[in-house]
Amino acid sequence: MKIYLQKITLLILLFSISPYTFSQNSAAVKGTVTDGKLPVEFVDVVLRSSNDSTTVVSYAVTDASGNFLLENIASGDYQLQFRLIGFKTVSQKIKLAGAPLSLGTTVLQNDTHVLNAVTVNSRKKQIHKTDEGFVFNAASNISQTGGTATDMLKSIPTVAVDADGAISLRGKTPMILINGKNSAITNMDQIAASSIESIEVISNPTVKYDANAESGIINIKLKKNNQNGLNGAVVLGGGFGAKGRMNSSVQLNQKTEKWNFGLAYDNRFAGRTKKIKGDRTNYLIDDEHFINQNRNDERTEGLQNLKFNADFTPDERNTFSLEALGNLETQDNDETLQTKVNTNTNDFFSNNTRHSLELERSKVAEFAFNYDRKFSDDRKSLNAGITSSYNFHRENTNIDTNNYDENQMLTGNPFLQRTHNYEKENISNATLNYTFPLAEKSIIETGYKGTFRFFNSDFQSSDQINNDYAINPLASNIFDFDEQINAVYGMLNSFIGSTENPKWKYNLGIRGEQVSNSGKTQTNSDAFSNHYLKLFPSASLQRNLKTDEFLKFGYSKRINRPDLDNLNPFIDITDALNPHTGNPHLKPEIIHIVEMSYNTEWDNYSFSTNAFYRNANNTIKQYAVLQDNGVVLLRPENIGKTITYGLETIFSFKPAPFYDANISVTAFQQNIKADNLAQDVVQNAFSWYGKMIHNFIPWKGAKLQLIGNYNSALATPQGKRIPVYNADLGFQQKLGKGNARLGLVVTDMFNTLESGYKNNTSLFNSNRTSKSDTRALLLTFAYTFKSDFKEKLLENQFSTE
Length: 801
Prior knowledge:
Structural class: mainly beta
Low-confidence stretches: 1-24, 112-123, 787-801
Number of helices: 4
Strand content: over 45%
Number of strands: 45
Mean pLDDT: 83
Helix content: under 10%
Largest sheet: 22 strands, antiparallel, barrel
Oligomer: single chain
Distance between the termini: 38 Å
């Protein structure tokens, strides 16, 4: 790994002192927007090339003082446009010749047709479409504020999150990146919603992204201020569900001409409850035939994040960035599980109560260094970076089990156990990306990425015997996992037609990934090693029908490598009758994907739809097997071949100045061929999910948001997950001049959010439901000073599981 890091560092230094460093042909554009009296906030400032009106060169939004800044713009002729609902659009031509340009004050004129209907309050766009998907503005989501990234994702169009926090796109788990990079933070509950700037959904990734992105990529971008001078913001919140909850965040930033320093801290603390009910019938087992379980969890959880960033821009061409993130998560869970077992004649067989006190502590440290190089030709760019994440997780559990007779009388002494699970993980990335023009109408993108992962898990289980704890060797082990992925890619981007109005756009690319991974347990009972080189081509063709309307076709080959949870062979015996484990012998899925998308936009409406077809071999699914002793063991298996096809649609509209909405629906059909499995498997299943986001401006300075989610039953290999649905409400009111705001949030208003599944096989039938205290009432207060965080930090949501 050290050799790779040394090579990347050397490349960074070589490029940073190259002759191009002394070329200064790019500039910045700045100015102020007012309505003739007062500054106007949240005006879209869009810069397009005079030679290509379909391509946005740079984009900004005015801050609370009406100021905007567009940086690193190459010399040339441009069209600058100012847009905001309630005002007439202003356009002007500008010419840049390498020197900064100050436009002074631009005055917007009121649109009298709109203002006759209602007083207009400016807001930043909630969803911004891109060629590869869309970007969701996290600050616009006032009903999902102050909790975690999991909570925020529940309100993102086309993203499905179940009641247990499992995230999916088109029925599969997506690749999740933090600031565009792989991270040791794999649990989205470790990221506070108040620290999120935006969430990018890439439904059609090209070869410049990791091939391990079968259903797409979710990129979570954390906040980083670029406002000049000293800026800051403070948020406080509190409320209650079944128990009390509170959170806070503080951000400070200092920016000068060449330096930008940022420091942020946020936290959230909450008490939670959860109730789980389950029953199972084992058809061919007479003794342990009917099983009924009831579980009650009392949990306290805490999350703290500390983030630091420093940017150095010695000139208009070179930027060096350093980021450091520290994360501390605590969780104490007091769990009681009661299990009753009857025979096939419904006679008493056994009854026990298992009580466990689980103490979890997680620490994450993440560091990133990045170098960006601009050139006089804006089609040319260089980027290099090194990141490293460290995750330390400790879990200690004390367990006591009491057995009862059929009259509920205690029998024998309590059975005492003690377990620990200590995990250490490091993920490091080295990247180098270079883009350059091949011809007037063609650009080449190429690059390298190295991913290096090291994981160690030490699980130990001890039983009390004669007042001493003795290690149980059958339930204890150490698991080590190492992985290296070296990838290179090349992609051609080009167009057909005039520069001003290209009729066709296309790209062709190929990515090669060399993978080497190995894992072993302390006893070497589950050792494995994989080494393979695979190529992943992609191609797309886009037909531009109008400036804001296009039709696009695409093909890509991808892979779904088993993650650590799927490979780790440890058997989790939290529930002795329903243990689960990983499978170190899993093979990666190979997937071929074909897509067709259509997108169009009008002044107050936008519509996009994407039809997809996915053919996957060696599909990985969780599969349950009934053991001879009545225990059902759940572990992932390669179940065969799966064909998935479906349609996802996003429709945004603003029929009135005081109201706008977004509706998204994803529907897909799965056809499963699992000849390698012994038991019966679901072969065909239809699933869909959708959500609606309604935004209202009831009066000046106020916002009201209502979000509804529905996820239909989702097929599993042996049954289905139950439907999931909920509704959240958020309200926010500006105070004074707008630097302070008061918010009210009601999560899961109708208390409907729960998870569960139903399995029905030839050997057993099982049902399970899980309900947390997801309904909560929350009050928030936020204050900013000299800051463009006004919309970004007014987020104060608590987790709804």
